[in-house]
Amino acid sequence: MHSGIRAWAMVITRSVFNRAGAIVGAAAQLVRRDSGLYLTIAAYTLAGLVFLHAVGADDRSAYSIYFADWIKLNCLVFPIFVVIFDAILILYRFDSRRPLVVKATFSNSRLAYFLSGLCLLVALMIFQGTFTSVKNAMPVWQGGFRFDVVQADIDNFLHFGVDPWRWLYAVAKNDSVRVLVEWNYNALWFLLNFTILFFVATSPKAASIRTRYLACFMAVWIVVGNVLAALFLSAGPAFYGLVTEDTARFGEQLAFLAKGLGAPNSAVSNQNYLWSLNEAGRTGFASGISAFPSVHVALVTLNALFLREYNRYLGALAFLYAAFVAASSVYLAWHYAIDGYVAASVTLLIYVVARKLVPADRRLPAPRTQPAVRPEAALAIS
Q1: Per-residue pLDDT of the chain (382 residues; tens, 9 = 90+)
Q2: Given 34, 163, 256, 281, which is the most exposed site by the fewest CB atoms within 10 A?
Q3: How far is residue 129's CA from residue 117's CA, in Å, rounded to a whole number?
Q4: Quick one: which of 348, 350, 223 has its CA closest to 290?
Q5: What is the DSSP letter of 366?
Q6: Under a CB-based contact definition with an 8 Å cutoff, are residues 288 and 132 in contact?
Q7: Cα gap 284→270, rounded to integer Å
């Protein structure tokens, strides 16, 4: 009897090790395929550190700020959500085919994509730290926010001599609308964009677009959020009076938004937080001020472009959502309207270039495990 138990234990142990080896091997193959993305992150981080040192802003580094929250979100919260979602789907959608669905759900291929995706997401944590660090240092390099008046005047010219927030407030100056817009802009936007990032990084269902999407994702943050922002640094309508001493131009808008001060997702509360960090020369979560162009608009535009590849109707809805986010950015005094226009245009250009230069990924074949030792063979060995 003891010999039989040892035999079965040997079979199970061998099977587990064989499968784990196959999954790790396939994940390593995916990590090697992602080498260009890792090199981009490394080069960007090095360039960011050089920039910080060159402008005398080494103290604006923000890497440690993201570690705990980023790891918790991507290595704990999202994986738990995925397991719960899969379990509910299997229990309530499938019956007779349930064993096959369970096998596919926890297949070696899916687990390999999941493991390699988590590795890449950890690297992107460093990428986000570099982005925030560079953003924090941009006012030091520029000596302040120099382009607000020019950008606000261009906005006014393009909208027939009227600052565009006045058009929005003419039809939507309402406390309930403000609360909804603030919730979408400061909460739902983050959930949608980083859920999509997690899905693309970890799911084999997104295998064909994985490299191209992640390359575009990083390019948007770098080109839109750092390069163009640094070259044409502006603070945005919320801080217009603070950087130009003209408090009247957006005074009515800011007075209305101030009614939500202290409420969950309040735009004014977040703006006060950012300005206090800027004045103190300190770093914090998502710190750094730059209005032109809008990363909020750029990322939802990017997602809309990729969703359109999958389904044109979903893509149409996603573009409507992108337009809503662009209008929200003006409504909440985060951005001038041109910030959204330029962000969407640059994102489209990045997407078109990536389609030409980055080939579609081929999905890896399912990793095979070595055949497990049968109980009879194990007994013979023992």
Answers
A1: 556 566 555 555 665 566 677 778 878 888 899 999 999 999 999 999 999 999 999 999 999 888 888 999 999 999 999 888 888 877 776 666 667 766 667 777 888 899 999 999 999 999 999 999 999 999 999 999 999 999 999 999 999 999 999 999 999 999 999 999 999 999 999 999 999 999 999 998 898 899 999 999 999 999 999 999 999 999 999 999 999 999 999 999 999 999 999 899 999 999 999 999 999 989 988 899 999 999 999 999 999 999 999 899 999 999 999 999 999 999 999 999 999 999 999 999 999 999 999 887 766 555 454 444 343 333 332 3
A2: 281
A3: 18
A4: 223
A5: P
A6: yes
A7: 12
Give CA–CA dist 291/148, Å, rounded.
Answer: 9
pTM of the model as a whole: 0.88
Instruction: Give the start-to-end residue ranges of the domains of the chain.
Output: 2-365+372-381
292: Cβ contacts below 8 Å, ≥ 6 apart: 147, 151, 228, 229, 232, 233, 234, 335, 336, 338, 339, 342
The CA-atom distances, in angstroms, between 349 and each of 129, 294, 352 are 25, 15, 5
Longest dimension (CA), the chain: 90
Give CA separation, 325 vs 182, 290, 341, in Å: 10, 17, 12
Could you give the CA distance from residue 120 to residue 124 in angstroms, rounded to a whole number?
6
Distance in angstroms (rounded) separating the CA atoms of residues 39 and 82: 29
